[in-house]
Write a structure and sequence with these properties.
The chain is an alpha+beta fold. The protein is built from four helices and two strands.
């Protein structure tokens, strides 16, 4: 039985990421539409997606949606793909993004 190193693991993840199409998913299109309408806050985008039924309304004891981390992952992927620009992290409570012009 052979072992895999951390480097090999990350190389495999990169290969998988590079094979995924750059065509925005329906969720990414919903996010882009919200950003075009002026939403820049990851938390606000998350709340809108919950209202649209894209995510559950489950919350942490802090009242932050449990889907917030997933939404930030999608936003970060869109940033890596050049669709968005990360603007700032507000005290680890929210993140701000904008369209890449």
């Amino acid at each position: 039985m052979s072992q895999i190193s951390f480097d090999e693991l990350f190389q495999e993840e990169k290969k998988q990421e590079n094979t995924i199409s750059d065509i925005p998913s329906p969720l990414q299109n919903d996010i882009l539409e919200l950003i075009r309408k002026g939403e820049t806050s990851a938390l606000s985008i998350c709340e809108h997606l919950i209202k649209l039924g894209k995510y559950s309304n489950e919350r942490f004891s802090t009242n932050k949606p449990k889907a917030y981390g997933k939404v930030c992952l999608v936003l970060d992927k869109m940033t890596r793909n050049g669709l968005l620009v990360f603007v700032e992290d507000i005290d680890k409570k929210d993140r701000i993004y904008k369209l890449n012009s």
